[in-house]
Amino acid sequence: MIDISPLSLLRRNPLKKVLDTERRMRENPASTARVVGIASGKGGTGKSVLSTNLAVLRAQKGERVLLVDFDAGLANDHLLLGLAPQYDLGHVAEGQVSPAQAIVEGPHGLKLLSGGVGRHGLANPTRRELERLFRALRPLEDQFDLILIDHGAGIGYATLAHLAAATTLIVVTNHEITALSDAYALYKRARMVNPELHVGMVFNRVPDTATADAAWQRFRDASRRFLGTQPEHIGIVPADSAVTASVDARTPVCLHNPGSWSARALAEVARWNRIDTSRSVTPFYERALRALR
Ligand SMILES: Nc1ncnc2c1ncn2[C@@H]1O[C@H](COP(=O)(O)OP(=O)(O)OP(=O)(O)O)[C@@H](O)[C@H]1O
Ligand SMILES: [Mg+2]
């Protein structure tokens, strides 16, 4: 017979465990991961190049880094890192494997949770699917120092749910007017769903500093004028053949050619101080779950 007396329930009750965990988190807030999203309006601006290099550079510093490739359907972080994962987020979302089974190890011990290629189920997830996935990913927050989330281009439902929960976001844009305009639309939307969100902007693949500065001024002026606020400018990464060569070599440029202009610029972005302070009081995936409701 099953014993359901209050005493036996108390014995089995996980409440003590929860309280212990909360106490541990209060005493040592470093026990949950900092979470930073990487997004863009327009596609192909360089999110995955930035995400993979950031992941390597922060892992090189000794942090336990998890890179989640949320560009479900068209993921390619594994290619940029020279990895061939057997499972991906799609398998996790379908409950076929646990996140731990899907995670693979990359340079300097960084971990990758791949988005998978051609898995369209996750490209347009339903609320239930996202809910299941966020629940499955929640325990990872206790196992890493930093979780980087590489988003698909644009403002899809999954990206919006992440933006609503995030404290820190990096928007990657190019200097062209189309990329700037899409980045502005993303920034505006992000501010709407989450006025607290701290946004940093990276201008990637720019021909020269003057062009990047002009693009930034344009963006900043429009933001100030129409939104009464502006993101933080955090870096300029030049158009560099070293990046193209590193993509071909399936090794991030910070490892393939660390002395190149682009690698040095990426290292500068990796030192952005907000990355060190991007922890929220409530765990990220709990906030993300709430954002779905
Ligand atoms: N700084 C750079 N210099 C030269 N080439 C670059 C640079 N950054 C990115 N690229 C090139 O642009 C391509 C696209 O970059 P990446 O895959 O990072 O874009 P993305 O924003 O992740 O694209 P998507 O929206 O499809 O996810 C890379 O394969 C690389 O060849
Ligand atoms: Mg990408």
Name its key features:
8-stranded mixed β-sheet; 8 strands; disordered N terminus; 293 residues; alpha/beta; globular; binds adenosine-5'-triphosphate; 14 helices; Rossmann fold; binds magnesium ion
Account of the protein in words:
It is globular and about 50 Å long. The protein has helices at 6-12, 15-27, 47-60, 77-80, 89-93, 99-102, 127-137, 157-165, 177-193, 209-227, 241-248, 253-256, 261-270, 284-292; strands at residues 34-39, 65-69, 104-105, 111-113, 146-150, 168-173, 198-206, 232-238. The longest helix has 19 residues, at 209-227. The chain has 14 helices and eight strands. It is 46% helix and 15% strand. Helix 9 links the parallel strand 6 (168-173) and strand 7. With 293 residues, the chain is an alpha/beta fold. It has one domain: P-loop containing nucleotide triphosphate hydrolases (Rossmann fold, 3-Layer(aba) Sandwich), CATH 3.40.50.300. The protein has an eight-stranded mixed sheet with strand order 3-4-2-5-1-6-7-8, sandwiched between helices.
